[in-house]
Amino acid sequence: MQKLWGGRFTKSTDSFTDHFHSSIGFDSRMYREDITGSIAHATMLGKQGIIPQADADLIVQTLGEILSDIDAGTISFDEKAEDIHMNIETILISRIGDVGKKLHTGRSRNDQVALDTRMYTKKELTEIKALLKNLMTTLNTLAARHTETILPGYTHLQRAQPVTLAHHLLAYIEMFKRDYDRLCDTYKRTDVLPLGSGALATTTYPLDRQFVAEQLGFSSISANSMDGVSDRDFCVETASTLSILMMHLSRFCEEIILWSSHEFHFIELDDAYSTGSSIMPQKKNPDMAELIRGKTGRVYGHLMGLLTTLKGLPLAYNKDMQEDKEALFDAIDTVKMCLPVFTNMIATMTVQPDVMLQAAKGGFTNATDAADWLVKQGVPFRDAHGIIGRLVLYCIEHHTNLDDLSLEEYQAISPVFNESVYDAIGVKQCVEARNVIGGPSKAMTTKAIEDNNAYLKKL
User: What is the pLDDT of residue 8?
Assistant: First the structure.
């Protein structure tokens, strides 16, 4: 077939070059954005008198018919037409002849592809925000059921201090709230209309870019035409935002994997989100959590690929930029696949409160509270730290814990101790005493859950 750009060429491109050059295999997913953008462009061309109004109307009508036919599955795309933009234009011309050739007046594929990619990314960011909101809602609901479910908090993966499951879940909600804010910020910088930039230096036609922006729902217009066609910051920022989101999912998955192990047994995953072994009949593997953890590296890779592709490009458009889409699309697809699986996995898991409580009672998670009790008796903190350290060593040597020591054993280390120390080091008291904003007490976690509900209602 004759290329729409082939006027200055004396022979056809090699068949392998056609395949190498073509992007229709992956950018065909943007057909709706391409047609919607072309409809707005054609409408503007007619309004401005750049082409006859009757021609603009026919183009708009035919583009709508093409969109319907694609949705119905009655149109096949041609690799020789290279990309979604040339495919749509070729189909248009085949239906209405020379009138269809007027569509590309005042437009380049450079600003057209930038437009399509931005429109597609805006749509996907909106969908990801909805999935993330659903996850936060699920976590907040679960937290509300576990404001009194005590488990050990960890540092260095060593038992540290007792907290509640609600407090632990609320920590991840804070991470996801930041992710949501980043998605909103990314959307804001994606929401810029590049159409009208032309190949790199706009056009001599009297385009009404503001009209097109309003038609397509863009909040602003690119201020420089060279930047308009060459900017892919929004792709990088999307990949970066999604990478941070995946990092948070991966951290949570690591804990789910640990918690569901026989050694922890804090939770049991639902059978619908677990798999078995081909050889070991007893196995119940947390494969969904492991896959999400693994796919995080995939999204990271797309971020690095985009940065590397762009790092040496001069202004303005370069064909290297065709490489932005597969990375962007796959990063988006991966996150959209992981979020609902993760949400449902969390919603259906079974929590084991008794196991969590027993773990919280071990590992001297109340040692800091014992030291704080001494401080409240007038002992300097550093001295109190040393006293409790010696008590912990004594417990390790005698295979016991702080709760089970006699008052005589306490007083052998420090005469300051009295019976009230036992009230201070019970794990429930350790949690409830931390009644500071951001703390694990029931009052603080309940307030945080209420605040989250208010936050989620505004999204």
Answer: 61
| CA distance linking residue 401 with residue 394, whole number of Å | 9
Question: Which candidate, 415, 270, 316, 350, places its Cα nearest to that of 114?
Answer: 316
**What is the value of pTM for the model shown?**
0.93
Active-site hit among 156, 262, 278, 406: 156
- 348 close to 140: Cβ distance less than 8 angstroms: no
CB atoms closer than 10 angstroms to residue 28: 15
Q: Which residues of the chain have pLDDT under 70?
A: 1-21
What's the confidence (pLDDT) of residue 81? 85
Q: Which residues contact 342 (CB under 8 A, 6 or more apart)?
A: 135, 249, 252, 253, 288, 289, 292
* Contact criterion met (CB below 8 Å) for 385 and 371: yes
Tokens of 205: 């036609």
CA dist., res. 306 & res. 133, Å (int): 27
277 has catalytic annotation: yes
Do you know the residue count of the chain?
Answer: 459
Residue 259: C-alpha distances to residues 24, 152, 255, 265, 268 (Å): 45, 12, 6, 6, 8
Point out the catalytic residue in the list 220, 277, 398, 420: 277
Q: Give the pLDDT score at 5.
A: 45
Q: What is the dihedral of CA 253, 254, 257, 261, to 10 degrees?
A: -150
Please report the pLDDT score of residue 80 as a whole number: 86
